[in-house]
Amino acid sequence: MKIVCIYSVGYVVSSGNILPNYSDVPFGLAYVATVLRKAGHDVSVLVLSRQSDIRQAFESLGTAPQLVCLTSVASQYGFITDIAKTSKGRWPHARIILGGPHASLSAEVVMQNPLIDAVCIGEGENSVIGYAAGREVVTGNIWYRDASGAVRRGQQDEYIQDLDALVFPDRTMWDRWVTDRSIHAVSVGRGCYNNCSYCSNHALRNLQTGRYQRFRSPESIVSEIRFILQGYPETKTVYLEAETLSVDPEYTIRLCDALTGLNATLPSKLSFVANFSPTRRFLASDELVDKLVGANFGFINLGLESGSRRIRSEIMKRPPYENSEIIAFCGRCKRASLPVRLFVLMGTPGETIEDHRKTVECVRECRPSSVNLSIFYPYPGTGLHKLALTSGLLTGREAVSGVERQRAVLDLPGFPRKQIDREYLLFFYRAFKGRMGMKTILIETLRNFLGMHPGLKKIAVKTLSTFKRV
Q1: Which residues of 357-396 are buried (b: 16+ CB within 10 A; e: fewer)?
Q2: Coil, helix or strand for 158?
Q3: How far is residue 80's CA from residue 71's CA, in Å, rounded to a whole number?
Q4: Is the pTM of this model over 0.85?
Q5: Tens of pLDDT along 281-317?
Q6: What is the CATH number of the domain that holds 139?
Q7: How many domains does the chain have?
Q8: CA-CA distance, 195 to 331, in Å (whole number)?
Q9: 470 within a domain of the structure (yes/no)
């Protein structure tokens, strides 16, 4: 069977290919595409942005597919609907199945869309195989519309418990869409132990049975990295993708030891990056910092999210930690030459300008190497989406916003929308004045400004590209 897997992104302003590097390849769709190809299907991959000519992209496929696999988060659902509409117009007999967080958490709504023939709820590696085979009875995480138009709901399977048994994603299907071939990512785990209210994990946890947070063995991870090096010997950096590696320090230490052993066998050491949540065991562990440095981590991502204890505990439902603990940990990492990138989320329901100022002050004291700054977006199915809904904060602006997490969509009583946007622009100045060169602050501020205005950013990128060619 001919199958096309389509991944959508928003507005692309890069002068290169749509995906900057292989860490931008979506794991869910990549695994599904790989198992379908392994099952003998003829599988192609398309990556489409909002500037893409969808019809032209479809023409490049040649013969018509019989199955179209899509994935979507809530903010991309409108664009995905446009893709599905064009697909139905060009290939009226092709079935369309939608997976991803939005389909999983809003299946009832999605199945009301006549353009969508089926949804995959939760993990899809095993279930999509059955759907592609055209089996009349679907039992694995699939809801589908039968010939009469009735929606058939399959039983939810258990979460895949043995992640080591999964096939390595076939990255060659994504080659034409990627600019930088030296940066890759490996999925080291699935699920999350935390119950953060702004994240979909606490809702996704209940979709299937079985243990939700799972990790691959260090041996399996090293095997996949060696597999990547065989096909992409120019690889320099590997992102170790998991929601957090803080939950089980003993596992993280074993993983670091395995990565250190791997690097000892390579002519040039690989650099690694991973996500960590600030659990107290992690923040207090000198051994973990030493192991991360020994394994050649280029930097680590650490989720501060808010410097307000009230927002963290009452609104975000974050694990307990104090600002002083994160500040001390960042100082320890700085002394060990381990860069820390802090993740900060602003504009959540209940936040005030005073709460935000606490965040800015905490970041100033942490002195991180960089900050990943986002404005809250109310993803359906999450606890904070429900809070925003019951608080009367949802106006419909979030459904049509073309700039996700870079423009405020909520107007908060203690933190108005325009003020959120203004503080987003001024964040690096307020957090790093006197701690970072003004040139760097201006660059980061300009990057935030252009992110808020994709049209201007597109013009800026084209202009810079022109100057580079001159």
Answers
A1: ebbbebbbbbbbebbebbbbbbbbbbbbbebbeeeebbee
A2: strand
A3: 8
A4: yes
A5: 999 999 999 999 999 999 999 999 999 999 999 999 9
A6: 3.40.50.280
A7: 2
A8: 27
A9: no
pLDDT in tens, 33-86: 999 999 999 999 999 998 899 999 999 998 999 999 999 988 889 999 999 999
Q: Which two tokens stand for residue 263?
A: 């690097």
Are the C-beta atoms of residues 192 and 199 closer than 8 Å to each other? Answer: yes
Of 153, 172, 194, which one is at a domain's C-terminal end? Answer: 153
- One domain for residues 80 and 139: yes
Position 461 pLDDT exceeds 80: no
* pLDDT, tens digit (0-9, with 9 covering 90-100), for 333-376: 999 999 999 999 999 999 999 999 999 999 999 999 999 999 99
Q: What is the CA radius of gyration of the chain?
A: 22
Angle, in degrees to the nearest 10, between helices 454-469 and 438-452? 120
Same domain, 148 and 192: no
Domain that holds residue 391: 182-436
Same domain, 303 and 394: yes
Whether residue 54 is contained in a domain is answered as yes
Q: Look up tokens 């990565």; give the residue.
A: 259
Q: At what angle do helices 249-264 and 286-294 cross, to 10 degrees?
A: 20
Assess whether 281 and 319 both reside in one domain: yes
